[in-house]
Each structure stands twice: as C-alpha cells, then as structure tokens.
Amino acid sequence: LSGLDPAQPYFQGTSIEVRLDKTDAEFVDVIHTDSAPTIPYLGFGITPAIGHLDFYPNGGKQMPGCGKNPVSQIVDLDGIWEGTRDFVACNHLRSYKYYSDSIIYPDGFLGYPCASYEGFGTVNCFPCPKEGCPNMGHYADKFKGKINKNFVKLYLNTGEAKDFPLWRYKVTVTLSGKRKVKGYVNVALYGSGGNTKQHQIVTGTLKPDNAYTNFIDVEVNVGTVTKVKFLWNNNRINPTFPKLGAATITVQSGLN
C-alpha cells in the first residue's frame, strides 16, 4: 500500500483501525508532503510515521514551487481550475505528482534515513547506509526485505516543478590563491549520465587553502563523474584582479 499524503484532519492521533497503518498490508510506504499542523498552517497531511517506510520530501511540510501565485502559471483557460486547485492544496497534491514521476525514474527519489530534516543537511545522514537507500514512490517495495526498524523516516529534496527527482552529492572544494576575497564558488558536474547546472558550494569570505563542503541536489544522475567545472565570482569590479583556483575538488555520490 502506498499512502499519498494520508489525511490529517479527523485521522491524526486516532487508533490504527481508523487510519492508515503499517498493519494494513505486508508493506506500507507513505509520502508526507503537507504535514504542517492543521491549525494554524492548514496542513492536510498526517505528521507521524505510520508505515514501514515514511518519506518526508523537503521536510514534509512545504514543497518547493508551492508558494507561487497560481495565476502566473496558467497558460490557458483550461488551466485555471487546475492552477487554483493546486494553489489551495499544492503541498497536498505534490504526493501523487512525485509518485507518477517515480515511475519514470526508477533510480530517482532516494530517501536518506535520518532522525530529522535538520539532520539530513549534515554528514550524519550521508551517504546511504550499507544496505542502501529506498526509492520514494513506485519502487519503494524493492526495499521490503531490508527493513529492520519499527519505523523508518526518510528525507530527500525535490525540484520545484516537473521533473521532480534530484540526486544528492557532497562536494568539497579546497581553494588555492594568494589572498582571501569575498564572493561565491559554484561547481557543475559532468558525467556519463549527463551534466548538471551550476550549484553553489559557498558564499562569503573565500580563503586560499581552506576547504569548503556543501551538499548539492542536482537535476540529473551524473553517473561516473568525468569532469568538474569550477567557477568563482566576487560580483564586483576589483582593479587588483584577484585570482582564485581550486587545488582539489572531491565529489561523493549519496548512492554509493
């Protein structure tokens, strides 16, 4: 059974006979996309973990792309109803959109086991453990035989619009240069599976010989990395033309 943002109002906190629960099937996986409290945030989805695998994309409360005005996204009259409906219940409806995308991307939507969404942004919840990470959505049941805990909470990030899956990498850049400057560092990954856009690793004061680490969620499964593009910019004209390079760049895939 796959629960697509199962309902919170009238169901959360009730006995398992009333609501979706892991005892309802051999395998129950749940996607939580609108689990903010009903009052005052109007969350439609249930918050606690209730299945064998519980996925909380983007933390499970506010989905990227859902804060936008529906009128700005409407291109024809037929879209007015869908645009208005999506605006009112956008977070709630993301669950079935993620699920339908998961059918097309069997390697996408990796869920990382973690105690919280805050922890998901740290090295404590990266990379996948030795038994691997389950895929949120249609292929979650491939993980059925590997569950040994009572409840497993899984976190991941998604894109703002279709196509939704993102792939997580940890990137560490060690800088080289003569002196510190202010600015930002971006990298793009090139690989056997495709190339990514530029993703920011650090912004602020950049010091030579320092290592800067960040997690990036990229829009393509890069596969075997063949090249990394490094770009830095200080957003201002500097008559001394400071130079900054990358002594090393380390890329770690969350999958393996």
UniProtKB/TrEMBL annotation:
Key words, A-Z: Cell projection, Cytoplasmic vesicle, Disulfide bond, Hydrolase, Lipid degradation, Lipid metabolism, Secreted
Domain PLAT: 167-256
UniProt-listed Enzyme Commission number(s): 3.1.1.26
The protein's name: Pancreatic lipase-related protein 2
Pathway: Glycolipid metabolism; Glycerolipid metabolism; triacylglycerol degradation
Coarse class of the protein's main subcellular location: other
Gene Ontology molecular function: any one: lipoprotein lipase activity
Superkingdom assignment: Eukaryota
Cellular component GO terms held in the UniProt record: extracellular space; neuron projection; zymogen granule membrane
